[in-house]
Amino acid sequence: MxxxxxxxxxxxxxxxxxxxxxLNSFHASYRTLHRQLIAQTLEANRAYAxxxxxxxxxxxxxxQQQLAYSAALLPELFDRPERLDAxxxxxxxxxxxxxxxxxxxxxxxxxxxxxxxLGLVGGVLKTREMLAxxxxxxxxxxxxxxxxxxxxxxxxxxPVFARDGRxxxxxxxxxxxxxxxxxxxxxxxxxxxQDGSQLYVVDANRHLLxxxxxxxxxxVVTGNPAVEAVLRGEEGSRQLLDxxxxxxxxxYAPVASTGWGVVxxxxxxxxxxxxxxxxxxxxxxxxxxxxxxxxAIWWLSKxxxxxxxQLAITARHxxxxxxxxxxxxxxSWYFEAEQLKLAMLGGLALLHGKLGRLxxxxxxxxxxxxxxxxxxxxxxxxxxxxxxxxxxxxLDIDHFxxxxxxxxxxxxxxxxxxxxxxxxxxxxxxxxxxRSGGEEFVLLLPETGLEAAxxxxxxxxxxxxxTQTPTGSFVTISTGVAHWPxxxxxxxxxxxxxxxxxxxxxxxxxxxxxxxxxxxxxSEDAPLG
Length: 529
Fold this sequence. Notes:
- By secondary structure, the protein is of the alpha+beta class.
- The chain has helices at residues 6-73, 81-95, 128-136, 183-188, 225-231, 268-316, 323-329, 335-362, 373-385, 400-407, 409-426, 450-465, 491-507, and strands at 100-105, 110-114, 140-141, 145-146, 152-161, 167-177, 198-202, 208-210, 236-241, 247-255, 260-267, 390-397, 432-437, 440-446, 477-484, 512-515, 520-522.
- Strands 1, 2, 3, 4, 5 and 6 form a six-stranded antiparallel β-sheet that branches.
- Strand 5 (152-161) and strand 6 (167-177) form a beta hairpin.
- Helix 1 (6-73) runs antiparallel to helix 6, helix 10 packs across helix 11 (409-426) and helix 11 (409-426) crosses helix 12 (450-465).
């Protein structure tokens, strides 16, 4: 079963934590900037609407003051038509506030107008708002209404009283709304962005008095929370769906003198359009920091995990004699690794001491001092687990029964010790010399090819056949050689092939080496003992 190592685990956890932190920071930045842009736009719209509402209120008050000044002059002029004409001409031309100026007597007859082209002098008023100004007898700003020429306008009037208090009539001025040459239109103008933003003015009846789209002048606005709030006299801002069902950021403020409302609103999408680009810049800057951080994390995870990884690898093979030296070489530069290293060294020393004594008894042949069959099997299992290739030489002393019959078992034991000594002399320190039983021996050669093992077997055969035994005579051996995994895929199969090669050597005359699956090597004229 696959398991993550510590380095990858540290790397994954750190990267995951860093990414989550980055994403959380990115999301938090987005939400903060989102709220900030919304709040700034709402406040900007509120301030803009309040400024225009205040300017509109001041504009209307200034217009009323102009009429009031004129009304103070008119009582002495009511019976002098040329002076009245001069006064209305002055009023209209002085500031350009009014599109039309009128002086009206109490019976509704028009005494003077500017411009003269209106053709109303001498006539009697029929316009309801102008007649309402007569009956009001006080300064008045009319509700917006449609004039005789179809223009939407508002009428301001100031009563004229004689010195004795008699009511003589009024002086009034008409201001066009929504007309390009209107003074109020010039005041409000198109001061806002061309991105779907809107600036409009509504009267108390929700009629549009001013709008960027002239075709909407006079339209009744419904379903707009900002309009409802401003007509209640409130000043503020809010995010809303306007009457066109567009998500808007609206600021609003009332015009105190008229009950009108000024609303400045901008589409939320336009406000947030810059946010995407800003977030991309933030992401790019974050990545410039994240990439070096990732490299640093990778390097640090490797540095942290290396001592524990080395200790873990050594722990898998600590039955080897080199395990202690490998553990000592581990650079345990931090506390936990150092303590683990010390504990492993202590435990390994203790374990090797106990296992050494135990194994010496359990895996050693008491007669020859060689590894017995149990030790041989243990070594083969370990090598197979480690996927370590090896060669096996199986040998048997020829006609050993005759040695026992002729010289006794004690001498036979000496011959066995003699052969085991010669086997030790031709083996390396890494080789394993085993007595598998009776007069049969096994020589295991790790990391050795078949050809090299065959040469070792032939050298051993020659050495034994030319070395005098304790009996005073010579003995010979028959040998079978095989290789794992070269000769077979499983260890038991390799041992079986080596045994079969040994038996073939015996059948073919003994005193020879037979390689599994190959021709035999031997000396037909060597002494048979």
